[in-house]
């Protein structure tokens, strides 16, 4: 299997010691998302004990599907978009992971995101494997009708590998409840029966769960408070900087502000704003909902995009896209605690710099697992046709996130490793133990 958008190279240290070398598209001499993931796996192998013999399982996606998505545009012409669905691992259960619509989507990115979903689901111990999907498109260039036709065609194309017990998509970057409704309906029409459990993150009236929209941000806040407590940081007086102010960063920022923290800086695709005394978070959220960006918010100072990394803060929440904290800016970060709301926002080199500087990084694979945890609740509710109250959902979410963090923190102390490596130790052992128990077929 090869593809022009896949990473190539001959990184010999990533070869399989028990068999053939990794194929070129799985290697990581170029530091892209998949390369970052492979480096993270390499760091955890020495802690896996006898399970290390199965470690190559983690470096090879189980299944990667690349599909053509042709649609008729409103002007009558036909446009083709490239779509992906990658199932990284299903040893612990069906694949689970979002679908993103973005002009920078590539196979390497989707592979990495699917792998991080495997780790994330195992870290919080929900019975899922990891999967991810996407279409390389700027959805802002499409009309609503074009967006619906693209979503439905993509769903039909990947329908051969998704399903309530096989692989369950969910919202991600530039996708939402409406996209999930179209995906659920398309799959159901092709199956000849309503299958609400094929996706999560749906509208409430189509089997969605209360609390799902806020779940990722609530999880970021929940484990952030736990981590802050362990390093003696008083959240009620903390200064917080947030990159990305949507469902993740916006909700997390709101919850920290409600706890007494000052949100002093926010950056998104439209600009970067700052206010030493603290931004009015409810007013900012209303402004973003109205305009689509923090740009133009009246009650703040505009600063440069690069100056965001110099902001004096206690907590930094990168909740945008991958590879935002790099070796180039990690030395400038002032925070005591970094909580990764986005997937893969910190490169391995930046991780090392932050650790050397005594800055605690709460990794994405546990910090932003609140979304998939409540997605699991939604899936369970769909199967049983019995739905819980929002208070019940939030209480269950908080309990699971706190328990997962406590386990990871203990492993980090026992092995004297970073929280990221500790999370990978916990998750990889669970995944590979399931692989060992199941054995190989045939």
N/C terminus separation: 22 Å
- How many whole angstroms does the radius of gyration measure? 21 Å
Main structural class: alpha/beta
Tally of discrete structural domains? 2
Strand order of the main beta sheet, please?
A: 9-8-7-6-10-11-12
Can you summarize the main beta sheet?
7 strands, mixed
Which percent bin holds the helix content? 25-40%
Number of strands: 12
What is the highest CATH level, the class of the largest domain?
Answer: Alpha Beta
Question: Can you give me a brief rundown of this structure?
Answer:
This protein has 12 helices and 12 strands. With 442 residues, the protein is α/β, with parallel strands linked by helices. A 7-stranded mixed sheet has the order 9-8-7-6-10-11-12. A 5-stranded mixed sheet has the order 1-2-4-3-5.
Could you explain how this protein is built, in words?
Strand 6 (239-243), helix 6 (249-258) and strand 7 form a beta-alpha-beta unit. The strands form two sheets. Strands 9-8-7-6-10-11-12 form a seven-stranded mixed β-sheet. The chain has a five-stranded mixed β-sheet with strand order 1-2-4-3-5. The protein is 39% helix and 16% strand. The chain is globular and about 55 Å long. It has helices at 33-44, 107-123, 144-158, 177-191, 212-230, 249-258, 281-291, 348-356, 364-367, 370-384, 390-415, 419-438, and strands at residues 63-72, 78-89, 95-102, 130-136, 167-171, 239-243, 262-268, 271-274, 301-303, 315-318, 337-339, 360-362. The protein has twelve helices and twelve strands. It has 442 residues and is an alpha/beta fold. The chain folds into two domains: 12-194, Leucine Dehydrogenase, chain A, domain 1 (Rossmann fold), CATH 3.40.50; 213-358, Rossmann fold (3-Layer(aba) Sandwich), CATH 3.40.50.
